[in-house]
Amino acid sequence: MDHDALSTLIGAAVGGCEIARTELTEAHLPDEPQWPTEDDDAGSVAAAQEPTVQVSRPSVDQPTMRFPLAAVLSAPSTQEPLRSSPVRSAPNAGGSGHATPGVSKAGSGGSGGPSGENAGGKSHGAIGPEVGQPRAVPVRIEPKNDQTRVVPRPEQRTAELSVPPAKTARVDQLPHLEQSWFDQTVRPDPQPAPPPRARPEPSRPEQTKRVDQLQAQAPPRQEPQRPEQPRPVPPPRQEPRDLPVTGYEEEPEDRLADEPKKSRKPLLVVLSLLVVAALAGATVYAVNELGGAEAIETRPPAAPANVQPLVKAVTAGGQAPTPAGVQRALTGPAGNSALGTLTGSVIDPAGGTPLWQQGDTTPATPASSLKILTAAAALLSLEKTDQLSTKVVQGAEPGTVVIVGGGDPTISGAPGKSVYPGAATLDDLVGQVKAKGPVTKVQFDLTRYTGEALGPQWESVDIAGGSVAPIVPFMLDGGRIDQSNVNGARTGSPGQAAADAFAQRIGAPGATAGTAPAGGQVLGEIKSAPVEQLVDNMMQISDNVLTEAIAREIAIKTGGEPSFAGGVKAVRDVLTKNGFDLTGANFVDGSGLSATNKIPAKLLTDVLTTAAKPTLDDARTAKLRPLLTALPVAGGSGTLAGRYGGTAAPGKGWVRAKTGTLTGVNALAGVVVDVDGRVLVFSFMSASNRNPETEVRPALDVLAAALRGCGCS
Fold first, then answer.
1. Which of the following is catalytic: 85, 345, 368, 686?
2. Active site includes 598?
3. Where is the composition biased (Polar residues) (predicted)?
4. Smallest Cα–Cα separation from 414: which of 481, 473, 488, 510?
5. I need a labelling partner for 414 at 20 to 30 A (CA). Which of 49, 81, 505, 523 fits?
6. How far apart are CA 156 and CA 443, in angstroms?
7. 114: β partners
8. Sign of CA dihedral 21, 24, 30, 34
9. Do 412 and 424 meet the contact criterion of CB atoms below 8 Å apart?
């Protein structure tokens, strides 16, 4: 067979197939490509009636020519990796067949559009935009004896898809809840379409195939199902009739649809908790593995802090003052008329040199500055750790107890309100006695002291004024009615009031005076603060009752009578024994409350000079050192806390002194550090009728402050 004859035969075959194609039934996309098999004759009912083309087989001795199957079916292109790409729907004629949403299918009859825009079928070759060329029709080639029969296969109805060369398009089932431009209805062709043919449409398979899968004969790719999330449906887009099919590198919009933005805060919280848990676990593991508590306990202690004392030690190394220098410094302040009759002295304790004297040997009323003598005698005669003991013993009758006063006036009747630091409490004593058994009767024994309860020339109005109370060996809070008020009113019967408070708390009737039996069983006991602390307390708040109690303890210690007279004698005896000259000293109590007391200023400066010596070579100095710290600080503590303002301010913090105040009498005695670093001892006593609050006391403060500013060399 020559070449021209073969071409004519092929053209006739193609034309016949095209004619037969118009009568083919509409079909869905098959699941697999339908290639010629030996069983196809049985499945094709209309095969005998279809137009056929007879092609003569060449004989064995004739030249053989291969039949160009590419003219009918073309292999799919594999030049690029398969990818999804935007597609466009060909302008198909209207038909009654089922169409995938957004993709129009051609009907089975009529052309319904411009030349070449017929309904599309599946393409097993490269799909191009040349829609004006006739497409190859699927055929079946059957060898039969000496001839080959070309039988057109029934056309499978497909959608016309135009895609760029070497690109594939997805036409699989799209999500029904996410609309993309695939889902939008293609605008119908303005040309009227022929009426659809009334043909039953076979059911469409649930799962469709992608064109590239059919071309490659590969099983369909299983796409992961997306979680269905309700989304607002956007309004239909006005797309152009022909969508661009070239130049796209990104995925179609159905793949790039915006997912709802989820908050990352829960994720961050979870991650944070996981990190914390991991760190905690690592810490526990490290502690357990590295020794646990033992490792912590064996850690070396931190280095001790380097403490730098703020108080500079005072020595005798400073510039020594001279009498002329001190005289210049005190001339002006000592001449203040508000001071009235002024006596006093100033001494350098480093060498005992007198620096200033004015009537220093003339006896004058010291008022409370006399307490310096009582405190010195106590420190020189009593052990600093001695305590005053109050006991309760079994009485002569069953259920009877006797309170034995031990000379402690600081017992606290209301804990937390006492003006005496470290005081014992009545509640403690009551609790001890209750533990021994029931009490039906309370007595109190005040026989420790003798003599009058009030000192000579004491005035009873001073009891209500808060200056004093009758001196008895058993009382609460120094006889104060208001335990926390230093200068508050006191009771006239402090022993009875204290015993009644005990009886009430222990559940017995009111107490009565009595005497403790000798050798009675001790049911309870409380003790005061040490003597050194008691001395400090009496000097700070200038407590007259506590001072008189200490004077009596000095008398008891030295074998004297525990009374006013006995206390005075004991103080004088102790001071004289320790080398102090008491010439001209005449006093009747230990507190200085009596206006008849007279002592020279020199006696006060002599005692303070011994306590302030720079060395401890003198045994007396070691015992008297606490006397210096017991003195109130100017502008800082005790009876000097509210003083040293105005022109006396330079002495604030540098002056330490004991005050003394009576009607028409004011005194100030203590120590001061001058600007050269030297300690100076002074004592000033004034007899003046001027206002003590606004004139006399401020004038005394200026005197001591002048010593502070003295560069008296």
1. 368
2. no
3. 51-62
4. 481
5. 523
6. 129
7. none
8. negative
9. yes
| Residue 563 structure tokens | 């009374």
Domain count, the chain: 3
SS (H, E, C) 597-612: CEEEHHHHHHHHHHHC
The position carrying tokens 């603060």 is 529
- Distance from C-alpha of 465 to C-alpha of 299, rounded to nearest angstrom: 62
Q: Are 572 and 603 in contact (CB under 8 A)?
A: no
Residues 563 and 674 both lie in one domain: no
Checking if the pLDDT of 139 tops 80, the result is no
| 340 DSSP assignment | B
Query: Do residues 655 and 670 make contact, with C-beta atoms less than 8 angstroms apart?
Result: yes
Rounded mean pLDDT, 362-369: 97
pLDDT at 169: 45
Mean pLDDT of the chain: 74
Q: Which of 542, 563, 591, 683 does the annotation list as catalytic?
A: 542
Q: Which two tokens stand for residue 269?
A: 């919280």
Task: Please give the share of the chain, as a percent, with pLDDT higher than 70.
Answer: 58
Same domain, 359 and 406: no
Kindly state whether residues 419 and 557 are assigned to the same domain: yes
Scan for tokens 């009636």, then name that residue.
Answer: 49
474-476 vs 408-411, strand pairing mode? parallel
Give 583's DSSP letter. Answer: T
Whole-angstrom Cα distance, residue 40 to residue 183?
A: 37
Task: Output 30 or 311, whichever has higher pLDDT.
Answer: 311
Range of the domain at 81: 1-258
Q: Please check whether residue 586 lies inside any domain of the structure.
A: no
Instruction: Name, in order, each residue with C-beta under 8 angstroms of 659's C-beta and a sequence gap of 6 or more.
Output: 368, 369, 542, 632, 639, 640, 666, 667, 668, 697
Q: Is 542 a catalytic residue?
A: yes
Q: What are phi and psi of 376, to 5 degrees?
A: -65, -40
Q: Of the candidates 491, 510, 482, which has an alpha carbon nearest to the alpha carbon of residue 403?
A: 510
Whole-number pLDDT of residue 77: 43
* Res 383 pLDDT > 50: yes
**Rounded CA separation 54/147 (Å):** 6
Cα angle vertex 710, ends 709, 712, to 5°? 165
458 compared with 151, residue with greater pLDDT: 458
